[in-house]
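subagent[fold] <- orchestrator: predict structure for attached chain, return tokens only, no commentary.
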Amino acid sequence: METSARCCKHSQECNPSSEEAINAAYYAAIDKLNKRQSSPEAIQKIKDSGNLLNTNSTPEFNAYLEKIGYTPEDLDRLHIIHVAGTKGKGSTCAFVSSIMQQVDSPRRLKVGLFTSPHLIEACERIRIDGKPISKQLFTKYFNEVYDRLTSPTPPLKKVTPDTRDIPVYFRFLNLMAVHAFLSEGVDVAVMEVGVGGQYDSTNAVRKPIVCGIASLGLDHLALLGSTIDSIAWHKAGIIKDSVPAFTVPQEDAAMHVIRSRAAERNAPLSVAEPLPAG
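subagent[fold] -> orchestrator:
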């Protein structure tokens, strides 16, 4: 009886204050994370410079990976399914994650999912087997990544003098997702591009197992260009050498660019036709 009472004292159900502690630690992490969002002044400075996209995002992301103890080879172990697009890329990622969880194999696959934005809580962006990681896990992995980034050793190998010591909001979460997925031992990770593709931090992956490009349209014109072919060039930048790529029917100009970029990389490209109605 004493043992039961002692155990009960350490359970969340019997100790409401433990939930308060979990929430306090989680929102302290969120407060630090929110400070990684670019200020209006910083955004204006970028606009004034004319360099709206960080073309060094991939080498910088690799530098952050190394700083927290990983290599590009570690990304390969995640068996990443990489998805870009304008409309439907988030839905595509959710469908793919669900399908992968149903794969008939000797054991059920453990599937990671990284998407953006979130609706209510930031932990929604990092999911395992379809469920957002808990506030406890989010806090744990946030603090581990943050502490490694702020540690004096090893030194960060800055790509340019302007490389930040700690990445901005989205890239921090991207880094944190990689850390969480590797720590949790996922078998496959579905990764949604943030903006564009070519210069997105998610594009640090060298060897995805497959790439997907959802329906394209005019989006982020200041960053990606004002024409559909310019936007297609950025989105198709996720296609990798000899890695199978899939897309859906696109406008002729967009499809031409996607086919050209796939051919440049000797990547087999398939077009998924719409399912018949009814």
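orchestrator: received. Logging for downstream: Residues 58 and 204 are 5 Å apart (CA to CA). The radius of gyration is 20 Å.
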